[in-house]
What we know:
Number of helices of chain A: 8
Strand order of the largest sheet of chain A: 1-2-3-4-7-6-5
Radius of gyration of chain A: 29 Å
Distance between the termini of chain A: 76 Å
Strand content of chain A: 15-25%
Structural class of chain A: alpha+beta
Helix content of chain B: 55-70%
Largest interface: A-B, 46 and 53 residues
Oligomer: heterodimer
Distance between the termini of chain B: 54 Å
Largest sheet of chain B: none
Number of strands of chain A: 7
Structural class of chain B: mainly alpha
Shape of chain B: globular
Number of helices of chain B: 7
Strand content of chain B: under 5%
Shape of chain A: elongated
Amino acid sequence: MPLNPLPITDADVHAYVDGQLAPERAPVMEEALARDAALAARVAELQKQNASLRDAFDPWLAEAPPQRLVAATAGVAPVRRGAPRWLGFALATAATLVVGVAMGWYGRELSLQNEGTPTTFTRQAALVHALYAGDANRPVEIWAAEEQRLVRWLSRRLGFPVRAPELNSLGFALVGGRLVAGNEMPTALFVYENPEKQRLTLQVRKPTNPGHEVAFRYALEDGVGVYYWVEENCMYALSGNLDRAQLLAIGRVVYGQLAALEAAAPK
Amino acid sequence: MAQTPPADPPLPQPDLVAAIPRLRRYARVLTGDSSRADDLVQEALARAWEKRRLWAAGSDLRAWLFTVMHNVFVNQRALARHEKLHVSLDAEGEGHEAWQIPVRATQYTRVELMELMQHVGRLPVDQREVLLLAVIEELRYEEIAAVLGIPVGTVMSRLSRAREKLRAAFADGAGTAASLKIVK
Lengths: 267, 184
């Protein structure tokens, strides 16, 4: 390496202390440090200053990040003015939950229950609906154009066959779907949209209490209507910001299609 | 009627989460206050998502996030100036008293480290920022220049001034632990 023998500059000193001195300057610096006691003392002082700065500011790295900042990494669209009060917290919690399950966050088992949020199934369904149906940018992971791939993937992950009902006759087109990492077990989510940009979600997952069947039930959670039913092996929740009658009509169609598919499926 | 998927891929979420402690530290150095720092980080993350198409996948995410946050901070300060909010804009540091004192002390006592933080807090923000990025985050001078949008020469001169001010402050034996107000 050709030597650069120019005298040591102030910039050289800083670069040396920060480990950024150009290699061709290194021999010149070493020689100057050996010869010039004042220079050596200055370098030592700067190195000590560096070490103490790191000692002072490194402990901050050990702090656990606050939940709202973890939630902010999910890229969820901000809550609109006028949205229900619990929505902001719920969005943050749900986003944290999804991240937490994906990352095994600090080894803690994050669950909605631990966080103190309402944990009824309908509340969860409404929360998931609000989180994804309300996301303008990325409501789904796999789009309707790849419906077959979506359905195959979700079926594999849930461990049983799932289908996206066909709701075009009701004005709702399939936008796509995703997997939601729920606090107990994975949930398949299908998102639909009508020409008025109203969105519906259908959530499908294994029931918490297998064998405990529930006929059509309706719940209203802060403007989000949820129709849900539980069959022997499967729970369904149809959610939307629609009036109850409309949601019921759609629910009946969904139920009918899924029942027909179930009946037709090879046993 | 199928929807058209958006063109912008998402930012890698685990990497974003991993960057939060460094972002918070940088934000505290900028704002001098833990609570305002977290607000700044949150704003920076939102802005990063908005502008994610500007990040080249595989390039240094941490440096890009620093750039985004630096720009958010600069814009906020400009806005505050414009709206004549009560923000300390003099060349000396603002509100550094609210930093938490470090819990770990090695060869330096807690008092020494507290004093050091106090002196850093009194540096002009431009110098504080360069000091943090060079010494604490150990970015290369060229990277710092890119983050702050300034020439490398300016990075070097701010770094040099910051170090000289700290050296002089300790040489004078200035600063007393008793005057440091400790706020969470």
